[in-house]
Write a structure and sequence with these properties.
The protein has 18 helices and 4 strands. With about 425 residues, the protein is mainly alpha-helical. The protein has a 4-stranded mixed sheet, with helices on both faces. Helix 1 packs antiparallel against helix 2, helix 12 runs antiparallel to helix 13 and helix 13 packs antiparallel against helix 15. It is flat, with a radius of gyration of 28 Å. The relative contact order is 0.07.
């Protein structure tokens, strides 16, 4: 239709080619997919430029198609090779088979196979670690050897790859070979800018993966940072916060973000010292204050308001109450593990890494999310009560309460009594 209307070579035509390429790919016609997607990339680049989202998306689609085509070739060559070897070992054919010809055929198959040996999924953190070790570190040894004792490097912060939660879907933005280097702030005027400039000349591709494509708000996540600036971005402190008030003001997900990922090396030691202190979790008084508040809200949203809204058939209010209960319940589990709750879309997945109530909470939250308010409200109420009872048992195990009361509104004040700082101990249990 576009050809008939003389739209060939336009942005609309490129968008149609992009969709056609994806369709061909889904049908397993990878060569056709590659051809039309390549044309789409060229047209989009011409009209919209390399900085446009449309161009970046079409490039990622082309890379995906090329990867599928490569996997298909490997699979096909493997099947040919297996068939060749099968013929070689078949007794009935052994006497007639020319061994030299067969081996030559097998070698030809292997030589023509793509050089990528591993076709399984590669985690972003593994890719970035290998990129740093193989591409960046040798450069640092050659050109910045005098400053290496004052450097650290790793990949920490925003992005699912820093948690190890990334998958194929995650690769549509802020993915690719990259890393962070951390140096003391007094070093930045000495060699920081030269280091940034030199790192910008490193190869952008690595092990078959394309250059990192940053989303609109994804810039500033990788590169060279001062140690102080890196921590201040997330915690508003250049190191470990030194007051309970400061600790209370830092969002849980910010502390989770700054303690995830991996440090590849730390010759200077200061970056890791701060990180290890933060990874210990909240100061105990702050942890207890947060636990008390979570218990109060669990009681209010899940044990009290949720069943009342269900009885009234106020399903929007019921769903909101359930959402609040699930959110504060999962936060409580992180606190009971002396851990920080991550960004909301990873809160549930992160439960599986927690030894205390992690699996229990994961299963129950999953079940609550798929049940019907109209048909399964009673089961949902039972799940909420069962989980609250399990939380009380853990509170007792940690010495945070001596009460067995299952209604959590009674447990908040019990936990509050364990706080040492007087003003915090006497504060409102609902507020945190």
């Amino acid at each position: 239709m576009y050809k008939e209307q003389q739209y060939e070579g336009t942005v609309l035509y490129a968008a149609a080619l992009n969709s056609l390429g994806i369709l061909y790919c889904e049908k397993g016609q990878y060569e056709k997919a590659k051809a039309v997607m390549t044309e789409s990339v060229e047209i989009t680049k011409k009209h919209l430029g390399e900085s446009s989202d449309a161009y970046k998306t079409s490039v990622k689609n082309l890379e995906m198609i090329q990867e599928k085509l490569q996997e298909h070739k490997i699979k096909s060559n493997h099947e040919i090779l297996q068939e060749t070897l099968k013929e070689m070992t078949t007794a009935s054919c052994a006497q007639e088979y020319n061994l030299e010809t067969a081996m030559a055929s097998a070698r030809k198959v292997l030589e023509n196979s793509p050089k990528v040996v591993e076709t399984g999924f590669v985690k972003g953190l593994d890719l970035c670690r290998a990129y740093f070790n193989e591409v960046c570190y040798p450069l640092l040894e050659r050109e910045f050897a005098n400053f290496l004792p004052r450097m650290a490097a790793g990949l920490i912060g925003e992005g699912s790859e820093c948690y190890g939660f990334d998958d194929e879907i995650s690769r549509d933005h802020d993915f690719g070979p990259s890393f962070q280097i951390y140096i003391p702030k007094e070093d930045m005027p000495v060699y920081g800018e030269r280091l940034k400039h030199r790192l910008a000349t490193l190869p952008k591709t690595f092990q078959g993966f394309g250059a990192r494509v940053e989303s609109q708000y994804g810039d500033g996540r990788v590169g060279v940072f001062t140690i102080e600036d890196f921590y201040r971005k997330f915690t508003a402190a250049e190191g470990v916060p030194d007051t309970l008030s400061h600790w209370r003001q830092i969002p849980e997900n910010a502390l989770s973000t700054v303690t995830n990922g991996e440090v590849f090396f730390d010759n200077y030691g200061e970056f890791t010292r701060i990180r290890e202190e933060l990874k210990k979790g909240y100061p105990e008084d702050v942890r207890l204050k947060k636990i008390a508040a979570r218990l109060m809200k669990m009681a209010q949203s899940g044990q009290y308001n949720f069943p009342r809204c269900n009885k009234r058939k106020e399903y929007v209010a019921s769903r909101l109450a359930l959402s609040e209960f699930m959110s504060v319940s999962m936060s409580l589990v992180y606190l009971l593990n002396h851990a920080y709750r991550p960004y909301y879309k990873w809160v549930h997945r992160g439960l599986l890494d927690l030894p205390i109530l992690g699996q229990n909470a994961y299963d129950k939250m999953q079940r609550l999310s798929v049940l019907s308010l109209e048909k399964d409200s009673r089961e949902m109420e039972w799940i909420i009560e069962e989980f609250c009872v399990a939380c009380v048992e853990e509170l007792k195990a940690q010495g945070l309460t001596s009460s067995s009361e299952a209604f959590l509104l009674a447990q908040g004040p019990e936990v509050l009594k364990r706080i040492q700082e007087p003003a915090l101990r006497n504060s409102n249990p609902w507020v945190e």
